[in-house]
Every structure is written in structure tokens, then in C-alpha cells.
Amino acid sequence: MDDRPSERWAWLQYLQAVLWSFFGIRRGNRARQDATQLRPVPLIVMALCLAAAFVALLLFVASVASKGGSA
Questions:
Q1: Residue 4: is its pLDDT beyond 60?
Q2: What DSSP string describes the chain?
Q3: pTM of the predicted structure, to 2 decimals
Q4: Distance between CA 22 and CA 51 in Å, rounded?
């Protein structure tokens, strides 16, 4: 039997694995489970999407901060 996550909740497990990896707190048994159960291509796509969203958020915050409160 396949130990991969069900299709319905797979995106949530990929999201969780990527977010924990961004913070560097995914260790031990759970990290090994992620390495064996999650496929690499969707994991990379999720990481790239989250990184792009983070960069977009930083650019937005910098844009708002650079306007200097002129409303």
C-alpha cells in the first residue's frame, strides 16, 4: 500500500513541510517521513510559490513604507 498522503490533504502536508523547512525546525522522525512520503516536484513547486509570495509581501511592505504616510 502507498504511504503517500491522500490527494485531498496532500497540499497541506507539502505546505507544512515547506514552512517548517523555511524556519529550520523540521527535524528527526517527521523530516524522514517527509523525505520518504512526499514527492520532490510538488515540494519544489510549493517552495518556489511560497518564496515568491514572501518576496512579493516584502516588496509591498517596502512600497507602503517608502510612501512615508502621505495619504
A1: no
A2: ---SPPHHHHHHHHHHHHHHHHHT---HHHHHHHHHHS-HHHHHHHHHHHHHHHHHHHHHHHHHHHTTT--
A3: 0.71
A4: 9
